[in-house]
Amino acid sequence: MAAGARDGAKVLVFDADDTLWENNVLFERVIDDFLEWVAHPTLAKTEIRRILDDIERANAVAHGYGSKVFLRSLGDCFTHLRQRPVTEAERREIEELAIALQHHEVELIPGVADTLDDLARRYELLLLTKGDRDEQQRKLDACGLLHHFDAAHIVDEKNTDTYRRLSATHGFDPAYAWMIGNSPKSDILPARAAGFNAVFIPNDNTWVLEHDELDPTDTGVLHLSAFPELLRHF
């Protein structure tokens, strides 16, 4: 990718969960505990996980994202496996499995704070995150990073129209903007479709429903292995 394209950058837009701080690893720990707890007489854990993924996919479309929808998915998965409604006692057990999601501290990914401090001196920084608004706002309030950003937006979904609205709201040309995130599905592909450039920083714990294929020949996508590497390019 030509350095000149990055030299012309004016706006950097950042994803939050699993880009600025760890998030999905907490859900994965709960899923591991759930798979142990729900032990099925004939289905392996991998099979139950596929069922749960399908249920989460459907619930994300119908109900959105966040820990409340996640708990709903666990309950729906249990009902599917047992072929009966969840009892109140079982519902409490599921909620206890996921209690860590409600009370965890925001754990920044290494190098995020210093990198943002440097970039904010030279670019307009925006934050774009999706999910339950109250839940995401609590993370934003606790992260200690908001002073780096000119604005932060919480949206229900990240699609091409979301990125077009973002550029219209802030009055910038998408050709001089970069979306930075870990999710091909939400951060990279729709941003590219809206005319943004993109920086893909994979996270080993990215939610399976956020996976998608990226075009290896797309020169508008910069692939990095760690957040601080942004300073080598911007």
Low-confidence stretches: 1-5
Shape: elongated
The total count of helices amounts to 10
- For the residues shown, what is the average pLDDT? 93
SS content category: alpha/beta
Distance between the termini: 13 Å
Instruction: Describe the main β-sheet briefly.
Output: 6 strands, parallel
Percentage of residues in strands: 5-15%
Q: What is the succession of H and E elements? A: HEHHHHHHEHEHEHEE
Tally the beta strands.
6
The helix content is 40-55%
Supply Rg. Answer: 19 Å
User: Looking across the biggest beta sheet, what order are the strands in?
Assistant: 3-2-1-4-5-6
Provide a quick synopsis of the model.
This protein is an alpha/beta fold and 234 residues long. The protein is built from 10 helices and 6 strands; from the N terminus they run H-E-H-H-H-H-H-H-E-H-E-H-E-H-E-E.
Describe, in plain words, how this protein is organized in 3D:
This protein is 46% helix and 12% strand. The protein has 234 residues and is of the alpha/beta class. A six-stranded parallel sheet has the order 3-2-1-4-5-6, sandwiched between helices. The protein starts with a helix and ends in an 11-residue tail after the last strand.
